[in-house]
C-alpha cells in the first residue's frame, strides 16, 4: 500500500457516463481530477447496459431533478454527439395505446411533459402512427420528436478521450475501500494506495451506498433493478423504424417493454424490470422470449415468437424500494461530510441527463473549493 503525500483537487469514484462527464466538466474548470474505477474499463455497468435512448423529459414529476436535468441534458447530449461525431439520431418516439379508455391517461402524460418544458409533444391518431410506423397497431399515441437514440459505448469512448486531453488521471481496476476526513482533505484508501483529495464525488452507481458508508457519509440504499432485453431477428427488424413505447402503467416499475431501433440498425425489446438482491447478477432467472413477444404484440401484432432472440441485460441503480413508482436522482453535498458530493441513484434518464448532471457537480465542486 502506497501513501501519497500529494493532494489532488477532485477524486471521482466511478467511471460511468456520469463520472466521466463530471471529470470533463470539472477538469475544464482547471481542477486536478482523478477517476477511480473498480472495473477494468469505463462504463461497463449501467452506462452501456441500457436502451441507448435520449429521453425528451416527459415522464417525470414537474420540478424533479429528473425532469429538469433530462431536458437540459438532452440538448447538451445532442450538441455533444454532433460536435464529436458520436453516432446518434433524433428519430422521435411514439408512446402508444390500443385502448380508447386510456386516451385520458395519454393526454395526462402529454400534459405532464409539456409542464416539464417538452413543448413539441402531439397526441396523434392512427393515421399519423401508421405513416411513421406502418407495422405498429395503435389507436392513439404521443408523438415526441425530441426523443432519440445514441450509441452509448461510443459516447463512453469519446468521454474517455476528452477526459484524457484534459489531463484527467484514470485508475482502472482500483476498488475504493474506505476514506477518512482530516485537515481539509479526505484520505481515500484503494487496493493500491492512499489518495488525498480536497473533494470527492461519489458516482459509484450500484455501489454508491457502499461508497458513502465507507466514507462515513449519509446512509441511503441503492436498490438493484434488473432489466432483460430481447432482439428482433433480422427478418423482423423492418417492423420498427424508430422508438415505440407502450403507455406506462401508473403504478408500474419502469416504462414498459418498448421497441428501440439502435444506431447500427438492430431492434431491441425491453427492458423488463424487477428488484433483485445482488448487484452483479445479470443472468439468473432471465425473462422468457414469450414475455417479450406478448408485450410487443400489443403494438406489433404480426410479431412471431421465432422472430424474437435473446438479448442482453442491465441493472439499474434505483433509489427507492418496491412500491414507490418514482425515485429521483440524489445529487448534492453530503450532510455529514461537506467535501463529499453525491451523484447517486442515477437510473433512467441518467444517460440523457449526464452532461447536465456534470455541470451541476462542477458547480458544487467550485463552491466547495472556492
Label this structure with key terms.
nine-stranded mixed sheet; 27% helix; D-Amino Acid Oxidase, Chain A, domain 2; alpha+beta; 2 domains; FAD/NAD(P)-binding domain; elongated; 370 residues
Structure, explained:
This protein has helices at 17-27, 65-84, 103-115, 126-132, 152-165, 208-215, 289-296, 350-369, and strands at residues 2-13, 33-36, 53-54, 88-89, 93-97, 122-125, 140-144, 148-150, 169-171, 176-182, 185-190, 193-202, 223-232, 243-246, 258-261, 267-270, 274-275, 308-318, 330-333, 340-344. The chain is an alpha+beta fold. The protein folds into 2 domains: 2-47 and 153-222 and 327-369, FAD/NAD(P)-binding domain (3-Layer(bba) Sandwich), CATH 3.50.50; 93-145 and 223-318, D-Amino Acid Oxidase, Chain A, domain 2. Strands 5, 6, 7, 13, 14, 15, 16, 17 and 18 form a 9-stranded mixed beta sheet that branches. Strands 1, 2, 9, 10, 11, 12, 19 and 20 form an 8-stranded mixed beta sheet that branches. Strands 3-8-4 form a 3-stranded antiparallel beta sheet. A hairpin with a 2-residue loop joins strand 10 and strand 11 (185-190).
